[in-house]
């Protein structure tokens, strides 16, 4: 059976059957995608799972309090980039801008 004949056969079925086929294909597709994702996740990090015990993992991860403190302090800290931008803008305002000549048209 060719693909075109199969599609035509599905198109002739009632709407509720087509919707069931649609959802079944969505679930099968998602199952395949998630399965590949899980397999690739296991393959990409086997040394982390084998090498670190739960205590070592706990010691290497920062606490929630430290993470939140660092995040919040980032909002109130003035960046060097902003300082440089403000300095550039103030120099730009001080300089007098002279109009330039436009090229002559032909």
Features:
106 residues; 6 helices; mainly alpha
Q: Could you describe the 3D structure shown?
A:
The protein is mainly α. The chain has 6 helices and no strands. The protein has one domain (3-93). The radius of gyration is 31 Å and the shape is flat. The chain is 75% helix and 0% strand.
Class by SSE composition? mainly alpha
Output the radius of gyration.
Answer: 31 Å
Mean pLDDT: 75
Q: What is the straight-line distance between the termini?
A: 71 Å
How many domain regions? Answer: 1
User: Strand portion, in percent?
Assistant: under 5%
Short description:
The protein is mostly helical and 106 residues long. 75% of the residues lie in helices and 0% in strands. The longest helix is centred in the N-terminal third of the chain and has 30 residues, at 15-44.
Topology:
Blueprint: H1 3-11, H2 15-44, H3 46-51, H4 54-60, H5 64-76, H6 80-94
């Amino acid at each position: 059976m060719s693909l075109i004949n199969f599609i035509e056969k599905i198109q002739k079925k009632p709407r509720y059957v087509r919707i069931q086929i649609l959802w079944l294909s969505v679930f099968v597709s998602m199952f395949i995608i998630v399965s590949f994702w899980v397999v690739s996740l296991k393959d990409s990090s086997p040394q982390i799972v084998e090498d670190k015990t739960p205590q070592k993992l706990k010691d290497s991860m920062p606490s929630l309090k430290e993470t939140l403190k660092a995040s919040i302090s980032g909002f109130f800290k003035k960046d060097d980039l902003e300082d440089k931008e403000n300095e550039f803008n103030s120099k730009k305002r001080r300089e007098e801008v002279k109009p330039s000549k436009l090229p002559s048209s032909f």
